[in-house]
Amino acid sequence: MTYDVAIIGAGIVGCFLARELSQYNLNVIVLEKDNDVGNEASMANSAIVHSGYDPIENTLKAKLNVLGNAMFDKICEELDVKFSRIGSLTLAFNEKEVETLKMLQQRAFNNGVDVEILTYEQIKQIEPFVNENVKAGLYAKTAGIVDPFNLCIHAMENAIDNGVTLILNENINKIIKENDLFILNNKYQSKVVINCAGINADEINNLVNKETFKIISRKGQYYVLNHFKDEFVKHTLFMVPSDKGKGVLISPTTSGNYLIGPSAEETNKFSKSTDLKTLDEVAKQANLMVDKIPYYQTIRTFAGLRATPSTHDFIIQESDTKNFINVAGIESPGLTSSPAIAKMVVEEIISKMLPLTKKENYNPKIKKYIKIKELTLDEKKKMFAIDKDYGTIICKCEQVSLGEIKDCLSRSCPPHSIKALKKRLRVGFGKCQGGMCQAEALSVLAKFYKVDKKDIMYDNLNSYILYSKTKGEN
Amino acid sequence: MKNLTCIECPRGCNLTIDDNLKVTGNFCIRGQKYALDEISNPKRVVTSTIKIKSLEVVRLPVKTSMPISKKLMFTILKYLDNIQIEAPIKCGDVIIKNICDSGANLIATRTILK
Amino acid sequence: MQEYEVVVIGGGSAGLAAALSAYENGLNKILIIEKNSSLGGILNQCIHTGFGIHVFNEQLSGPEYAQRFIDKLDNTSIEIKLNSYVTKIDKDKTIYYSNDAEGFQVIKAKSIIMATGCIERTPGAIKLEGERLSGILTAGLAQRYLNIEGYLVGKKVFILGSGDIGLIMARRMTLEGAKVLGVAEIMPYSNGLRRNIAQCLEDFNIPLYLSHTVKEVKGKDHVEQVVICQVDENKNYILGSEKTFDVDTLILSVGLLPYNNVLEDLGVQMSSTKGAVVDENYQTSIEGIFACGNALHVHDLVDYVTKEAMQAGLGASRYVKGLLKHGKYIETKNKNGINYVVPQKFCLQNIDKEIMFKFRVTKPFQNVKILIQDGDRTIKSIKKMFLLPSEMENISLNLSELKDCKSLSIEIMED
Asked: What is the domain-level CATH number for residue A386?
């Protein structure tokens, strides 16, 4: 089969591109190296929908950030993804930083973003947890938080529902062009190729083109705090940005947890290791903003790799090779920009390569997910009447039922691994980090896929959990 | 002279046994026997699991009815690889008498009804 | 709505003993709600022996110990709900639970005993350095996979933390054919029972690296190497002391935490042990709600869990019968060298003969005195050759010793 479009990489950009293209009469295939979609930077980031005051005027970053931000309400409604415009506060601690805030206020105005500068007293009113030494803050009320895992997953689910093909565990290492057709890994033929391979986008580009850009991998380490009953910060708190990036932030997440981070370290493209020294530094920075951070609530630390382009702006263009499009260097505000990037690529670039006619039966929505924990008692009872499995709680910390897991497994972008299940339903996301429920979750997956338990992976194909059966069994 | 940690109870007494087989440091009589055994023929209770045909579980926990010679530990473990029984079984049931000539029986340590 | 005299949440060692004790003390309408498909809790996967020396004067395996209590249930009116999970409790003791047979149920209880056990500290909680890979597991999870499911998690293993479960797993995995290359403990002393060092490590020549911790975990998708490093007294790395082990598995045995999600949501007063603050009857800050076992504070021996739970069962029965008096509480204070004391408060009018205080020391001590005082008055002084943080201490005081007591503190006196 010859595809019209092959998308390399199922990160947030690839997922939104797939969804955007799925409304047209096109054969689209997505090729992903990992065992799940949204498994790299799209999973390990600050989960922020930025307002757009920060990117320098007239850059792609500025334009797409603002356009993307405005799209989130509708998209998250259609895709059943948690999203909340909680607003962000960028905090200044001295006169020089206050000056920077004024510069950012002007930049926000130029970018078309509504912000205001608040005094310490005004900040204290809406965010009582900030430290006393805060001088002023830039308040951007359009900033929000989103569940980045399910943003990717549900976008892809919707794309697949509308006819897109997803191939997981397909690392692209060969692309040749023959008679106007690209052949990828000697297997997949496509008229158009979109390279949105994240930190590997330069290497994918180099399979076809001369090197025109480099992707630098910049690591960011974070703390994740558990959700807890006591009051804590309600806005995303930023430090005044420097040339290294937006600096450390403290933010609630859509699941009621809190993120503290990231660091910024140049690193190789493989290492997502964390280290105490860097995390201590992150804490030191965060403590400047809020001094009573309950670090004892830490349930996890993690690192993500940002794909920083050598060109300093998003790279979104047809390459020297005709019909080969690079969508590369999508670092922050990449998550926010992704729906706008997808729209731009399709409407401004692909429209000149392929005829775009709309599908009659395109449906932008996915079936709503049942979240037992969020239902009333009567609603829960109704769900139990439909399927008894809604009564069996598998993940105790996050209260996720067997019925929800089975529903998730029946979807078009289902989880194949323990981590994929965790990303979708928060199974194993809580205080015990799967200590109590991983064995049960693993059994459910093995039963569903009709494989031995040792064939269920934690994440990618070599990440086994169980090595071998005891007692002479294989 | 040899220093030992008694394993007979959670107390974990620090035992000393001298060349005349005199044991000191023991809180109770069990410590003396343990130290003497440990010098001549160290013994341990072996616990493991065996395969079981059951609707409830796939492994049945088992143990030797008394401490067996330490040298036999891995022999017994290997032997257990090829044992399989069927439910129902009761906690305390003897599964294998005098396992591997150790003098101890292998007994079930859990009741599995179905 | 179904109403019970006492609902016990959790059917492990604490829940079983608490329910049986409530029954033996005259209550009839008793329910145990257990999340798993069988009673016994974590004991079912603790197939090694060593349980029961204080309660039965025998060395039982975990499942055998549990079975003793499960068998006793047969002749009682105690009801059991298996595969059932409690998601919420209201202050008026309304309990919400669900299972696959009855769906979402709401019941009322006159009293509730929380016996929800504990969880293991995770790689995240200790901020483990290095990559997030498969092959990093807590000891209890590896134990479940091995003893219940019949799978080894790896063939070449390193263990971080010298907690008892880690030591037990070192032996278990060795017996099942894995090679355990070592155990690292960040403290200069072991956190497990002495006998487990002897029979789980020394028996198999497994080295114990004291004052060492894991500095880095390396690998692509699965663990490939673990780097350990010696630490100084402030737990800082002593650079140059790194040792690298080629392993496929890193097991963590770095402590347990009482699991009290439901109690926390309810707003019960919590203590530094991460369990509830309780009184002499193991009653929490909400009247009629009791807590015991590892959900209250992590015990070293199951025998002590049983004894504590029986006390909580007795407390609940007294509460239901209206026998608990509302007297003035005396607080127990942990001073020098004492990490915590349970119960945190007591009311003299509710003590029949004696009261048991349980505590742990903050660090190892040798040849010291445990001093129990009421202000400047010494109530009791006990000489101790050894005291270890890994071992829970019990001290009983009788009513005559507590006569006219106004306050109570426990501390370590060093020479």
From this structure: 1.10.10
C44 in contact with B at a CB cutoff of 8 Å?
yes
A263 and A409 belong to one structural domain: no
Residue corresponding to tokens 């016994």: C40
- Report if residue A365 sits inside a domain: no
pLDDT at A243: 64
CA-to-CA separations, A389 to A339, A414, C174, in angstroms, rounded: 36, 18, 38
Between C49, C63, C195, which is nearest B5 by CB?
C195
A180 token code pair = 């106007």
Task: Answer whether residue A474 shows pLDDT above 60.
Answer: no
pLDDT tens by residue, A105-116: 999 999 999 999
Torsion sign over Cα B82, B87, B88, B89: positive
Which chain A residues are closer than 8 Å to B59 by Cβ?
470-471
Distance CA C84, CA C12 (A): 13
Residues A254 and A299 in one domain: yes
CA gap A428, A419 in Å, rounded: 9
CA distance C141 to A406: 23
Distance of alpha carbon C330 from alpha carbon C350, whole angstroms: 12
Q: How many independent structural domains does chain C possess?
A: 3
In a domain, A123, yes or no: yes
- Residue A51 included in any domain: no
* A335 and A301 housed in the same domain: no
Q: Which of B49, B59, B82 sits opposite A472 (nearest CB)?
A: B82
Residue for token pair 């200044």: A92
Domain harbouring A252, CATH code: 3.30.9.10
Q: What residues contact residue C363 under an 8 Å CB cut-off, 6+ apart?
A: C337, C389
Which residues of A are catalytic, by number? 50
Write out pLDDT tens, residues B25-49.
Answer: 888 888 888 888 888 899 999 999 9
- Measured distance CA(C59)–CA(C50) in Å, rounded: 5
pLDDT classification of A245: cutoffs 50, 70, 90 = low
CA nearest to B31 within chain C: C195
Contact C152 A467 (CB under 8 A): yes
State which residues form the domain around C40.
Answer: 1-120+255-324
Lowest-confidence pick of A244-248, A296-300, C212-216: A244-248
- Residues of chain C neighbouring A381 (CB-CB closer than 8 A): 103-104
Same domain, A31 and A130: no
Give the Cα separation of A75 and A457 in Å (integer).
Answer: 31
Task: State the total domains in chain A.
Answer: 3
A356 CB-contact burial (10 Å; exposed 0-12 / middle 13-18 / buried 19+):
middle
The ipTM of this complex is: 0.95
- What is the spatial distance between Cα C315 and Cα A401, in angstroms, rounded to a whole number? 34
Q: What is the pLDDT of residue A33?
A: 98
Reported as a pLDDT band with limits 50, 70 and 90, residue A242 is: confident
Domain end (from A305, A334, A364): A305
Domain range enclosing A117: 84-145+215-305
Chain B interface includes C58 (CB < 8 A): no
Cβ atoms of C412 and C387 within 8 Å: the answer is: yes
Closest CA to C295 of C1, C4, C15, C2: C15
Question: Domain boundary at A322, A352, A382, which?
Answer: A352
The tens digit of pLDDT for each residue in A182-237 reads: 999 999 999 999 999 999 999 999 999 999 999 999 999 999 999 998 899 999 99
**CB atoms near residue A132 (< 10 Å):** 7
- The predicted-structure confidence for A324-383, as pLDDT tens digits, reads as follows 999 999 999 999 999 999 999 999 999 999 999 999 999 999 999 999 999 999 999 999
* Nearest-neighbour CA in chain C from A381: distance (Å): 6
In a domain, A61, yes or no: no
Considering chain A, what is the average pLDDT of its residues?
96
